[in-house]
Backbone:
């Protein structure tokens, strides 16, 4: 009887990752040649994470995000969300890209935000309109619901894209360098507003950037990828940082440390704005492991 009673005790619940990437190898084929973009990349994203993929240009960050979105199929390995294998695009994984032309120009702001809700059957017209207006206001575009994209600034267009994605209440919001084409001031403001939206809605974010500062400001966890083909170098906890800590000593130290991890003495990955003061040494796998352990 005692043994039976023991069976009644529920197991201690351990948080399962929402998004699980396992040994993801991504390849492109062109003119008979195979180009390997990433090699055996694994990571876990938990519900409410602001998880950043950080690495130099060409390391496969965008490719990983596209694979998470279901736009690219892994040559090996797998990505699952909520325990289900990602096999194609779906309304649970909404994406915001860098390009300002991601909004159909013939639709107004409101129509743009409503469109995925209607197309996916997630909401009928009245509810879609309500949700659209709610999120348009949340991203600070009150008064622009009937405007067309060509009348908006780049930052405003990105706000629309964010509103459109969040209105769908996706399991994961995918963002591929969404602020990279904005001027520095607008970029900073958008980072701040993304943080504010996250505080309110606590969505799960998978965010791609090649800016160390942006990774620290936006993310609570950062995956560092090696130059082409992308492999995991280290994972860093960064929940303690935000825009207000950006100038501080701890922020600078973290930024330096990441720089050392990313840009070895071999000078491999210098496309992503190297820090002038950095003189890193080449990172061995053992060093990456040690860093991961140290940060944990
Ligand atoms: N559609 C494609 N066809 C062929 N090769 C591609 C394609 N998309 C990406 N690649 C290649 O895959 C590699 C990884 O590209 P990806 O855009 O994922 O890198 P990234 O880290 O996001 O770079 P960036 O920061 O410059 O955007 C690069 O060598 C790139 O040239």
Residues:
């Amino acid at each position: 009887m005692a043994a039976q009673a023991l069976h009644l005790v529920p197991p201690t619940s351990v948080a399962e990752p929402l998004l699980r990437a396992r040994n993801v190898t991504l390849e492109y084929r062109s003119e008979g040649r195979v180009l390997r973009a990433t090699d055996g990349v694994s990571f876990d994203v938990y519900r409410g994470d602001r998880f950043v993929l950080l690495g130099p240009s060409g390391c496969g960050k965008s490719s990983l995000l596209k694979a998470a979105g279901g736009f690219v199929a892994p040559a090996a390995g797998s990505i699952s969300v909520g325990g289900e294998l990602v096999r194609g695009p779906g309304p649970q994984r909404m994406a915001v890209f860098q390009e300002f032309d991601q909004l159909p120009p013939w639709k107004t702001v409101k129509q743009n935000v409503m469109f995925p809700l209607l197309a996916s059957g997630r909401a009928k017209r009245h509810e879609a309109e309500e949700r659209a207006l709610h999120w348009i206001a949340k991203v600070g575009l009150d008064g622009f619901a009937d405007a067309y994209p060509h009348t908006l600034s780049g930052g405003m267009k990105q706000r629309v894209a964010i509103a459109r994605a969040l209105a769908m209440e996706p399991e994961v919001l995918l963002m591929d360098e969404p602020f990279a084409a904005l001027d520095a001031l607008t970029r900073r403001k958008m980072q701040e507003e993304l943080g504010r939206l996250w505080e309110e809605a606590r969505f799960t974010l998978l965010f791609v950037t090649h800016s160390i500062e942006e990774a620290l400001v936006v993310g609570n966890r950062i995956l560092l990828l090696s130059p082409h083909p992308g492999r995991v170098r280290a994972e860093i906890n960064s929940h303690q940082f935000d825009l207000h800590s950006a100038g501080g000593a701890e922020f600078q130290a973290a930024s330096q440390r990441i720089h050392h991890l990313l840009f070895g003495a071999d000078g491999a990955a210098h496309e992503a704005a190297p820090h002038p003061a950095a003189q890193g040494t080449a990172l061995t796998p053992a060093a990456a492991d040690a860093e991961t352990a140290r940060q944990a």
About this structure: The longest helix spans residues 184-201.
